[in-house]
Amino acid sequence: MQIITLGNEILRQKADKIDKIDEEIEKLSGQMLEIIVRDKGVGLAGPQLGIMKRIFVVHVEGDTERVFINPSIIETSHETCKFEEGCLSVPGIYANVIRPESIKMQAWNEKGRPFTIEANGLLARVILHEYDHLEGILFLDRLAENKKKTLIAKYEKKNTK
User: Fold this and answer.
1) Which residues, 6 or more positions from 84, have their beta carbon under 8 angstroms from its beta carbon?
2) pTM score, whole prediction
């Protein structure tokens, strides 16, 4: 499985709900976790692989690997923080993004078991970043328009040589 990069319209589409969590979805989640290890990422969403399903995986250093299926945000904090983000779908481009400091989310794991997670700091940021992918949103979309255009131009220049 190859990671889809900026310019592919798939990244701008909303992912579909997963109706049945079965062995196929469990296998997919395992493959996605292998890819983030291989590509040195901390998260990966289905749409980044061209799989238009509401699934993402995260593995932040010091935390366990996590699979989120059909996630929904229950609440986010009013407090925000700025932190540098990158994305496997926009390789080599980084920018400071403002996001809520903490989050509460409900989802299902790869075994079909529901869970609720409260996260803050880097884990919350990664969860929100991956959730955005399910909505067709890239981290660049969270930037001021002029900064976004500058970074897209930099990416395109770097990747058209």
Assistant:
1) 94, 95, 96, 97
2) 0.95
